[in-house]
C-alpha cells in the first residue's frame, strides 16, 4: 500500500536533459524582459570556450533571445533602472527591466539584450602562483599542458572562484581549444595588465542594485 510519504510532492515544471546550458548558480535570474507580464529565465551561458559566451532568455524550453558576452560572467541580476509617472494615476511605474552582468573587470548592463552601459570595478590581488604560471608560459618556460595543470591544481586548492576570468575560462575549455587560447593571451599585452576583477565587488554591486529595486517596491 502506498502511503502519503511515498508520493512525490513536487512537480517538475521544466526538465530538459539536452538543454545544453552550462552556467553558475549566480548567473541565473528571472525577469519580465519584454514587459509582457511573462517572467522568463535569464541565463549567462558559459559555453565551452571564450567564443561561446552568451546571455540567453528562455521561455519554457525555448530560447527566445540571446546576445554575445564579451567575457566570462560571474553574476547576473535583473533590475529596473528607470521609472516614469503613469498618466492615469500619476503613480511611479517602472520601465522594462535591465540585466546587469558582472564579467571581466566590468559590470555590463543590457536593455532588451542590447549593450546599454558599463563601468569598471576594483581589482583583487592575483594569486602569485597563477601570475607566475601565466608569466612563465608567456616566456615559453611552461608548456600549454603544464600551465593547465598548475591552474587546475590551484583551483582545487583555493577554489576557481578566486582565479582570474582568464584562468576560469581556460578550465572550461576542451583540450583541443586550449593551445590557441593560451597563445592568444599569454603575451606581453595581457601579462603586463594581468588583473583579477574583484568578484566580491561584483556581487556587492549587483546585490545592492537588487536591494534598491526591492526597496523602491518596483518588483
TrEMBL record:
Protein name, per record: BBS1 domain-containing protein
InterPro entries per the UniProt record, alphabetical: BBS1, BBS1_N
GO MF: patched binding; smoothened binding
Domain Bardet-Biedl syndrome 1 N-terminal: 10-186
One of the record's GO cellular component terms: centrosome
PANTHER family reported for this sequence: BARDET-BIEDL SYNDROME 1 PROTEIN (PTHR20870)
Pfam family, one: BBS1
Record's signal peptide: none
One GO process term, biological-process aspect: non-motile cilium assembly
Amino acid at each position: 500500500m502506498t502511503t502519503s510519504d511515498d508520493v512525490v510532492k513536487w512537480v517538475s515544471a521544466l526538465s530538459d536533459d539536452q538543454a545544453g546550458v552550462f552556467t553558475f548558480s549566480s548567473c541565473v535570474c528571472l525577469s519580465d524582459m519584454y514587459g509582457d507580464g511573462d517572467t522568463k529565465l535569464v541565463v549567462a551561458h558559459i559555453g565551452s570556450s571564450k567564443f561561446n559566451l552568451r546571455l540567453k532568455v528562455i521561455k519554457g524550453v525555448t530560447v527566445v533571445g540571446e546576445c554575445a558576452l564579451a567575457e566570462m560572467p560571474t553574476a547576473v541580476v535583473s533590475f529596473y533602472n528607470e521609472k516614469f509617472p503613469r498618466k492615469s494615476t500619476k503613480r511611479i511605474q517602472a520601465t522594462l527591466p535591465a540585466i546587469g552582468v558582472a564579467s571581466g573587470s566590468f559590470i555590463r548592463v543590457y536593455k532588451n539584450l542590447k549593450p546599454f552601459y558599463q563601468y569598471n570595478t576594483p581589482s583583487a590581488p592575483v594569486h602569485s602562483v597563477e601570475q607566475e604560471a601565466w608569466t612563465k608560459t608567456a616566456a615559453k618556460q611552461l608548456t600549454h599542458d603544464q600551465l593547465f595543470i598548475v591552474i587546475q591544481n590551484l583551483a582545487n586548492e583555493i577554489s576557481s572562484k578566486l582565479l582570474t576570468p582568464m584562468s576560469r575560462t581556460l578550465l572550461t575549455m576542451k583540450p583541443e581549444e586550449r593551445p590557441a587560447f593560451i597563445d592568444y593571451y599569454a603575451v606581453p599585452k595581457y601579462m603586463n595588465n594581468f588583473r583579477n576583477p574583484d568578484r566580491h565587488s561584483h556581487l556587492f554591486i549587483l546585490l545592492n542594485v537588487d536591494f534598491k529595486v526591492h526597496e523602491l517596491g518596483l518588483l
